[in-house]
Design goal:
about 575 residues; alpha/beta; Rossmann fold; 8-stranded mixed beta sheet; 3-stranded antiparallel beta sheet; about 20% strand; globular
Length: about 575
Amino acid sequence: MLSLLLPAATFGFSASRVTLETDVSPWSPATSSWRKIGAVPPTQALTLQVPLTIDGAARDALEKTLYAVSDPDSASYGKHLGHEALKALIAVPADRAGRVRSFFMEAGAFKATLSPHGDVFSIVMPAAAVEKALQTTLAVFSHEAKPNVQIVRAEKAYSVPGSIAPDVAMVGELHQFPRISARSLVHEEERKSEAILVEDDWPTSCGTSCSAKYLTPGTLQARYNIPATAGTADPKNTMSVAEFQGQFFKESDLEDFSEACDVDVDVASVIGSNTSSAGVEAELDIQYIRSVAPGVTLTVIYDASYSLLSWGNQLTALDSPPLIASVSYGNDEKQQSGVAYMESVNAVFMKAGTMGVSILFASGDQGVCGREGCGVFTKRFKPDFPGGSPYLTAVGGTDFVTQSVVGPEKAWSNSGGGFSDTFAIPSYQAAAVANYKITATMPPADLYNNSGRGYPDVSALGGQVNPYCITTEGRFAGVAGTSASCPVVAGVFARLNGLRLAAGKAPMGFLNPFIYKNPTGFQDVTQGVNDEGKTSNYGFTAVAGWDPATGLGTPDYDALSKLV
């Protein structure tokens, strides 16, 4: 495994300065979908996430503890750590934090707040001071697909003084340009339309409000054996969804969905609210995680900066973080990420799991080719991050084998899946991955990393054959993607946490060791291929057992409830 104490090759030395993240190409108008629109006002306050270096031995101890508290066969299963114990485990030296704090405060920072675990600074300082301290140039960028979405990033490489370079893993997020999807509505229907017909054999809980053959809470209950009742309520049972710039919700949309679909969809609390607009992504997440787990308290964590680091640090810094975190965002591993950035995010995931928090991410909606595409000449697959991280549960998407018939599922051709180019196969899935490689017909060896972590881990309906019915901007509409699959699976595990808490047990925490030891809790998917629907491209086929198109399959709540 990689250590956050990065090798010297990742640094660029120049006199007394050290350039960080040298494996990340700075922004280029020729290759980026983000466009520079102007300079950053010098006095504008910016917030930087600055992960400190975690020494190799401490990182190994963190990983070992994560697996110990997450493995159902371990004597330490469920013995999650609190803030103080986790801080002691990570053991970042106080003088390391002191040097970094002093540098930024002397450089003009307004404040430098250290995380409860002593490993990440949140630095607030004016833009002009950031440029001088890091010897870079900042700019405001907007996305070509959504010009109203704006972020601040660095135009060129950045550096820190050599005196603190060994103390700092990276400065986030100066080079990380997020993926923006202009998620389109598959179809729209007026709520009061009299033309909508719902056939008797199609399970729906939304009456005539949703178009016939749209997925609704009732469809999911039928396919995944989920009780229609709220389940055992426990004040300690909590869950969350993460939303980023421009994606929020309207109370009226949630109320309309609740009334039409006979389910209690509400948000108990919001961290970092944005009331400027409603977004399809946010309302999809909220309406379906609550539909699956209506008895579980929901928090929306909104981060305007498009920063996984910022979101993760907000989550893990909470006194009692929500026990389930569903996230429907990501990038390709090589798409403006960098190893130091990915390892810093991995550290957040490990901390969360060690604390008893389950992290679930959508695996992406571009098949094996990712957001960059496979290309015309080099068709090498583009694995997803964070989907390819070994420290979270990646959720893929499926379709019904027969359109509009509740029954066996197949891999959705656009569902993200494959093998990481950066992270090795973790022990919990080694046997499953090995079995796939001797069972399936594999794509050409030069298209993927044979030693990489395989993903997704599990799946749920998400394809375009039968879209999900949601309410947005006062209208009922259909939408598809692993962004739907992820909150559905997250809701299932939130309900399972409720069963454990009611029985006096600990929450499940990091899910993958449990998942791979209990494949009978999932409905195997053995058809389909995630080739992005293009016959000219290769993909990974779904077979019996785990596969990098659908994972171990889709959830069976009734079966899982007997295993937890």
